[in-house]
Amino acid sequence: MRYGKRSLVVGLSLVTFVLVTADRRALSQAQPTSDTLVVRGGTVLDVQQGRLLPNMDIVVQGERITQVVPTGQVNTPAGAQVIEATGKFVLPGLWDTHAHTRDYDGALNIHFGVTSTMDMGNLMDWILSLQEAREKQMSFGPRIFPDGMVIGGKLGPHEWNVKSPEEARWAARQNIAAGVSFLKVYQEATCEIVKAAAEEAHNASLNLHGHLRDCDARGAVLAGIDAIAHESGVAAATTPPAVLAQNLARNKGESGGLGLPEALEDPEMFDDLIKLMVDRKVRLEPNIVGVFHGAYPQWDKYELEQHRLSRDPSLNYLPEMYVRMWFTDFTFHPYPPTPELHEKLLKALANHQLFARKFVAAGGKILVGTDNYYHAPAGIAVWEEMELLAEAQIPNLAILQGATINPAIFVHQDKNLGTVEVGKLADMDIFSKNPLNDIANVRSLETVIQHGKVQDRVFHSDYREPIPRPYLPVNGQLPRPYISSVQPSAVPIGTSTLKITIKGQDFNALDHVMWQDVELKVASFSPTEITAVVPDELLCRAGTYKVQMITGGRVRQASYNFQEVMVTFGRKFDQRWNGQKLSIEF
Ligand SMILES: [Zn+2]
């Protein structure tokens, strides 16, 4: 049983939630008196063949599509809701194939036409409850197809920290018994563990996904993996062994499949791996928006649109912690990159794009996944990823398939989802411009239909998930520090023996205190207050300097939080009035 006694209380609050939500939405549009919906006269995109079917009427009864016929052939029943779609384009609802679902992202996804997600690792009880709530329409947001707990990994309670194939088999069976939609292995998985997980998945007729590191892409494909997240493990399989050995020694394996190692790839080695992947029907999730977050040339534009989105007053429920991560958490360090690092990142990006392009040209199927929550906001990142894939010269049809039918097939939901066809669940997006001509036309989205009903695309600041996700530190045992203040906040140029006081929460003795890119010596430590010494040579140039933490231990990741200290030309603002200091001190 998934629900215990506590579910009765939760159930009652769900009913209240649904009633309040339904009531509010009824005000904004006339309520149809039957459960029939007709989308009239639109051009339907057959995402499998790439054909456009103009002037079609789509009839939906309840949750399912019952007819797709040339316009005029349907007698619209009285009371049916009619959506006029002449001159518009009707596509299946979009998927995000790499979601880390959080309790604030349901409305965000629906707003951007994302009606289904593959959840790539979460708290088991929470994600299974949310999946059920979404199917029963007790929660507003995309359908969720979860992998349950990730097999292999040490980051937190969403992962099985398995050390042997036997443990991996046991973990896989626990997930399967709980009813997950696919399995996923993480970077600590060796090829033996990948093989064990693949066998268990296949015995249960499920597919195995993976974020690779300790087993490279070739090894994982030979071990039976069915999809590769972040294009991980490709660098290890396509970098000349001598170059790779040197690089791994330097990085101690930290950089995995993300970011830098791809700069060392030898594109001559791509074709062999691509042939193996295509022969074995292994899907590729390029995840450019996540892996190269902050590095691709479109970042300035996306950063601005994400800032605008996050400042929408109706989205004031977005947790500050996550919003900050979208703008400060990158797969590389420092940010912004030094010119030398930037050059390497662009080389890596070019190789990453080339591999994905060649993979699709050879007949491989891609998955459009964002790795929200921390590398990107849910919803909008799907549009951005689609544009970045087009920038990589992947054909628009292949991209649209990667966001519709490919994931539906991957999680064995293609009888229900992934195309606009009779018998399928009526999850559809209506666009005023054709995304097949120009992928950026996904931005012309006008209407989102899910569960056979037009969904509310307006954000509401009272949006609440009926079962909020329990708070846990992002990376398990490595608490993410929160800096509330750094004092002094300004010092005159040429100051010597400066000691700064950093106050906040969840400081960890393993954290590194950074002044821009330079690590400071810690003079005193407590979980809420650190003092650190700033060397004199860092104070000889005026400017504004970022003080932040890098979490310690094996995973080095910039904190989402920072404060800035100014080094001024020396004039000091007198804060005293009649000898009394009036300004507020932290
Ligand atoms: Zn992920």
Care to describe what's here?
The chain is an alpha/beta fold and 586 residues long. It has 3 domains: 32-92 and 419-457, Urease, subunit C, domain 1 (Roll); 94-417, TIM Barrel (Alpha-Beta Barrel), CATH 3.20.20; 482-581, Immunoglobulin-like. 30% of the residues lie in helices and 23% in strands. The protein contains 16 helices and 28 strands. Residues 98, 100, 120, 371 line the site of zinc ion.
Blueprint of the fold:
Elements: H1 6-28, E1 36-46, E2 51-61, E3 64-70, E4 81-84, E5 89-92, E6 94-99, H2 106-111, E7 114-119, H3 124-135, E8 143-146, E9 150-151, E10 159-160, H4 165-178, E11 183-185, H5 191-203, E12 208-210, H6 217-223, E13 227-228, H7 234-238, H8 241-251, H9 270-279, E14 283-284, H10 288-291, H11 299-310, H12 320-328, H13 339-361, H14 380-391, H15 396-402, H16 405-410, E15 428-431, E16 445-450, E17 453-454, E18 482-487, E19 490-492, E20 498-505, E21 512-515, E22 518-519, E23 521-526, E24 529-534, E25 543-550, E26 558-568, E27 576-577, E28 580-581
Helix pairs in contact: 4-5, 5-6
The structure holds zinc ion.
